[in-house]
Amino acid sequence: EKGMANVDSVIKKLKDYELSGELKRRLIVYYEHSGQYDKSEDLIFELIGEQPEYLEEGISFYERLLSKTDADLESGRLPRGEVEDALEELRRKLPGMAGS
Predict the structure, then answer these.
(1) DSSP run (H or E) holding 73
(2) In this predicted structure, what is the pLDDT of residue 97?
(3) Tens digits of per-residue pLDDT, 50-79?
């Protein structure tokens, strides 16, 4: 618990800086593992905007979230409906998936 508080404290200090793609990926993993799904989502869309090749990893994130309970998703401030909508949006961006 104390370790997570320290990580969150460092992250707050970084918010004014432009983060590298690699650091954003690591933060996404941290947020997912700590149940802060809404924060993962923000970074995923930011990262996909900068690096479209991250699209499949973003899709995998939402597919993993679908296996969570509704209570877990609500606790992570990312309700199931939002997860499903985001997953559908990302799948539409996959090459060859337009119109499906």
Answers:
(1) helix 70-75
(2) 65
(3) 999 999 999 999 999 999 999 999 999 999
Write down the pLDDT at residue 60.
98
| 5/86 Cα distance (integer angstroms) | 29
What's the pLDDT score for residue 100?
A: 44
Of 44, 37, 41, 28, residue with least CA distance to 73: 37
Q: What is the DSSP string of 7-68?
A: HHHHHHHHTTSPPPHHHHHHHHHHHHHTT-HHHHHHHHHHHHHH-GGGHHHHHHHHHHHTTS
Q: What distance in Å separates the CA atoms of residue 3 and residue 82, rounded to the nearest whole number?
A: 30
Pair 62, 90: CB distance under 8 Å = yes
Residues contacting 78, CB < 8 A, separation 6+: 37, 38, 40, 41, 65
- Burial level of 80, CB count in 10 A (0-12/13-18/19+)? middle
